[in-house]
UniProtKB/TrEMBL annotation:
NCBIfam families: PRK08306.1 (NF006162), spore_dpaA (TIGR02853). It comes from Bacillus glycinifermentans. This is Dipicolinate synthase subunit A. Pfam families: AlaDh_PNT_C, DpaA_N. Residues 152-288 form the Alanine dehydrogenase/pyridine nucleotide transhydrogenase NAD(H)-binding domain. InterPro entries: AlaDH/PNT_NAD(H)-bd (IPR007698), Dipicolinic_acid_synth_A (IPR014215), DpaA_N (IPR031629), NAD(P)-bd_dom_sf (IPR036291). Residues 7-123 form the Dipicolinate synthase subunit A N-terminal domain.
Length: 294
């Protein structure tokens, strides 16, 4: 239980509703900033404006997955209020106050460091990334179906990267009957790909493997589908780039080559906001729990 903890949830989208639900169920005192247009009322949660929040009483701050913009603005889907988080706000919190965000940027890192408050980037955690790979896979399957006129079954699918997302994508597309090749650079990953019954290749040899690809799914957050590689790809290939913006594809050159290349960020929040919210809420509750050792 989170009895005795005061938590400010500042901004966010539908995923935050699951977090609010879970934190209030666990008996935390929750203040909601940026939720004035939300019809639903949660017992134990109080809606207020940023200027009304008593930062001095706050043990933890929960920001949206996106954190803040480069100038501190916090996205508020359920409000028209312009919410800007500043270092002076964090300085007013209790010294042990922790800020939880999905991802971060220089601004957020700067105000956390400047105020000497701990910032936890939830999306860097293995548990969240692995749980999130489940709705991400479903989103990738949805996009593959929407943008092709053939079945995944029997198609040649190339997955780039065998990290937390790449592994789930490779396994799921293979289970649907695709012939899956996976590009990686670590020898342990190449061994794992072979063990999974898939076809491994070294990422340095990418250009030699793209020609017969129907669907190429990139999870490598680095320019990997560049001019040289795209020149060897056929226009019938569909590229689904899941890597964080700006993705790993030279989109302009892909378009010139007649290759359909789609950047597909934030799939969990699009295809399954409730599940995506529950994933964050469960991990967050564990982290906030006084007994946690993580
Ligand atoms: P991850 O576990 O860190 O995996 C990334 C993989 O990329 C690793 O296997 C890594 O290989 C490889 N890699 C990185 N830089 C490389 C390079 N220069 N050359 C070759 N390989 C390289 O990350 P993840 O959790 O799977 O996430 C992957 C990306 O997808 C991230 O950008 C993440 O933000 C994004 N993502 C997007 C969605 C969505 O909805 N679109 C959902 C979840 C995640 P090594 O291990 O050898 O370094």
């Amino acid at each position: 239980m989170l009895t005795g903890l005061t938590i400010a949830i500042i901004g966010g989208d539908a995923r935050q509703l699951e977090i609010i639900r879970k934190l209030t169920e666990q008996d935390a005192q929750v203040f909601l900033v940026g939720f004035d247009q939300l019809d639903h009322g949660f017992t134990g949660a109080t809606k207020l404006k940023l200027s009304e929040l008593d930062f001095g009483a706050v043990d933890s701050i929960v920001l949206p997955v996106s954190g803040t913009s480069a100038d501190g603005a916090v996205a508020t889907v359920f409000s028209n209020e312009e919410v800007v988080l500043k270092q002076e706000h964090l300085e007013k919190t209790k010294p042990h106050c922790t800020i939880y965000s999905g991802i971060s940027n220089d601004y957020l890192e700067g105000i956390a460091k400047g105020s000497n408050r701990r910032l936890i980037k939830l999306f860097e955690r293995d548990d969240i990334a692995i749980y999130n790979s489940i709705p991400t896979v479903e989103g990738a399957i949805m996009m593959a179906i929407q943008h092709t006129d053939y079945t995944i079954h029997g198609s040649n699918v190339m997955v780039l990267g065998l990290g937390r997302t790449g592994m789930s994508i490779s396994r799921a597309f293979s289970a649907l009957g695709a012939r899956v090749k996976v590009g990686a650079r670590a020898s342990a990953h190449l061994a794992r790909i072979m063990e999974m019954g898939l076809t491994p290749f070294h990422i340095h040899e990418l250009g030699e493997h793209v020609e017969d690809t129907d669907i190429c799914i990139n999870t490598i957050p680095s320019l990997i589908l560049d001019h040289a590689v795209l020149s060897r790809m056929t226009p019938r290939t569909l590229i689904l780039d899941l890597a964080t913006r700006p993705g790993g594809t030279d989109f302009e050159f892909a378009e010139k080559q007649g290759i359909k290349a789609l950047l597909a960020p934030g799939l969990p929040g699009i295809v399954a906001p409730k599940t995506a919210g529950q994933i964050i809420a469960n991990v967050l509750c564990n982290l906030l729990s006084p007994s946690t050792t993580d």
